[in-house]
Amino acid sequence: MEERDYCCSTNTSTIGRCRSNSPKEKTKQEKPMKPYRGIRMRKWGKWVAEIREPNKRSRIWLGSYTTPVAAARAYDTAVFYLRGPSARLNFPELLFQDQEAAHDSIIQQGNMSADSIRKKATQVGARVDALQTALHASSTSQKPDLNEFPNPEDSLDLQD
Questions:
Q1: What is the chain's alpha carbon radius of gyration, rounded to the nearest angstrom?
Q2: What is the pLDDT of residue 148?
Q3: Are 108 and 78 in contact (CB under 8 A)?
Q4: Where are the beta strands (DSSP E) in the chain?
Q5: Tens digit of pLDDT for each residue in 31-47?
Q6: How many CA atoms lie within 13 A of 117 on its CB side?
Q7: pLDDT of 147 higher than 90
Q8: Distance of CA 42 to CAs 23, 49, 64, 137, Å?
Q9: Which of 145, 147, 82 is nearest to 109 (CA)?
Q10: How far is CA 157 from the centre of its chain?
Q11: Does the predicted model carry a pTM greater than 0.70?
């Protein structure tokens, strides 16, 4: 069966001309995919997380982070407290990383205010962000400073 692309009109003269090539549509197609659910990247490189409250138009701001993993973990925490075990998570295997957090989440799930959800999510996000930033800093600190003169004691010259 042939697939046809019709717009609002059934007039056959407009069938091929329904799609517009506006710059707005082109930028939508060129956007990079988001690496995780519930996060986005600011123009200056920070990653932010937010979630819409169920049955409301308002959003819960979950914070701004340096790494996308931290923002995604903050989102996971909030979505679990809002929607329960059926929520679609970015890292389902890391949800119950702490035994204490697992116990709290089972008790308080479903009856938490937006402020308490925001607080829990930002705590998780901040912890993950600190760990990710520390890992990145430790890996970059091993690189030698190219502006420094070499020290003869540190050279690896083979002596006969």
A1: 25
A2: 72
A3: no
A4: 39-41, 47-52, 59-65
A5: 567 789 999 999 999 99
A6: 26
A7: no
A8: 21, 11, 9, 22
A9: 82
A10: 47
A11: no
